[in-house]
Amino acid sequence: MTRFLCNRLIMMMVTMLCASFLVFAVCEFSPGSVARKSLGPFATQQQVDLLFKKLRATDPLPVRYSRWLGVLLGLIPDPLQAPDSGLNFNDPRGAQYFGNFGYSTLNKLPVNDVIWDRLKHTAVLAGLAFALIVPLSIIFGILSGLKEGGALDRFLSVICVTFTSIPEFASGVFLVTLFVILWPLLPGTSQLDPGSGWSIPSQLVLPVAVLVIYDFGYVARMIRVSMIGVMERPFIRTAVLKGMDTRQVIFGHALRNAMIAPFTVLLLQINFLVSGVVVTELVFAYPGFGRLLLDASLFGDIATLEAATLVTVAIAVTTQLVGDLGYMLLDPRIRVK
C-alpha cells in the first residue's frame, strides 16, 4: 500500500507539472504581448514595456517557465514585486513564499487573496449539491434496478432522462420564474450578501436545486445499470433462495457490488461541481470559482487562469486517488502490495 501511494503521489506531481507547463505555454503563445495580457487593456505603454523587461520575455520558453515555477514554489522572489518595478504589485505575504501564484490584474489583488475565497464559496455550493445528489441517485438507481422494465422503472427513468436533458440555464430561468417572480419566496441572485434582506441559506436554495436537477439523473442511470447487472449474479440468487431478508440482500450484498462501477462517476461529479458550474454561478451571480475562471478568461488575467487550472488539476488527480482507494474498500479482491 505504501508503495502504491508513493507511486500515485509521484504521478500526481508529474501530471500537475505537465499541466502547468501546457497552461503556461498556451498563455505565453496566445495572440498579443505577454505583458499587455498580464496588465490588461487599460495599462499604459510605459507599464507594458516595464513589465516586458521584468518578465524577460525574450528568454526561451523553458527558461521563463522555470522562473515562473521557481516563484510558485518559493525558490526565488517574484520580480514583479520589486520596489523598482513601478507596478505597485504588493503581496502582504512577501515576494517569496510557497504557493505564490502572482498578482491578479483583474481584481487588483494577489491571486491567493482571490482564488481561495472563491473556491470556498464553490465548495459550499458543491458540498450541498453533492450531499443531495448521492442519496437521490442511489435511491432512484436502486428502485429502478430492482424492477427493470416495470412501471416504476419507466417512470423514474423518464424523470432522470428529462432532468438530465434540461440545460442548467433553462432550469435556472424556470426556477427563478416560479419562485422569484410568480411566487416571491426566494431571492433571484445568490451573491452571499447578508445585507440583501435574504438569509445565506435562502440564497443557496436555487443554485443548489439547479445543480441537483441537472446532475442526479445521470448518476442514477449509471447506478441503475450496475444494479441490474448485480441482481442477476449467482450470489444474489443464492441469497434469495436461502430466504435472506430482501433489505439485507439489497444493502448487504447487492448495493456494495453495484457501487463499484458508479463510484468513478460519483467522483467525477466533484470535478464538475467545482470547475464546471460556470453557467449556474453566472445565472445567479454567485461569487464562485467557476465565475472567477470565466471572468479571468474574458479579461485575460493570466496569473488567475494559471492558478485556477492548477487547482482544477489538483482536484482531478486527488479524486482519482480517492477512487482507487475506494475501489479497494468496495471490492476486497483488489489488493495492492
UniProtKB/TrEMBL annotation:
Name the domain of life this protein comes from.
Bacteria
What Pfam families does its record include? BPD_transp_1 (PF00528), BPD_transp_1_N (PF19300)
Q: Where is the ABC transmembrane type-1 domain?
A: 119-323
Coiled-coil positions are none
What topology in the membrane does the UniProt record assign?
Answer: Multi-pass membrane protein
Subcellular location, record wording:
Cell membrane
- Identify the InterPro entries for this entry: BPD_transp_1_N, MetI-like, MetI-like_sf
CDD domains linked to this entry: TM_PBP2
Q: What is its main location?
A: membrane
Transmembrane residues, as ranges?
123-143, 155-184, 204-223, 265-287, 307-330
Name the keywords, alphabetized: Cell membrane, Membrane, Transmembrane, Transmembrane helix, Transport
Q: PROSITE patterns, from UniProt?
A: ABC_TM1
Homology family: Belongs to the binding-protein-dependent transport system permease family.
Protein name, as recorded: ABC transporter permease
Q: What is the lineage of its organism?
A: Bacteria, Pseudomonadati, Pseudomonadota, Alphaproteobacteria, Rhodospirillales
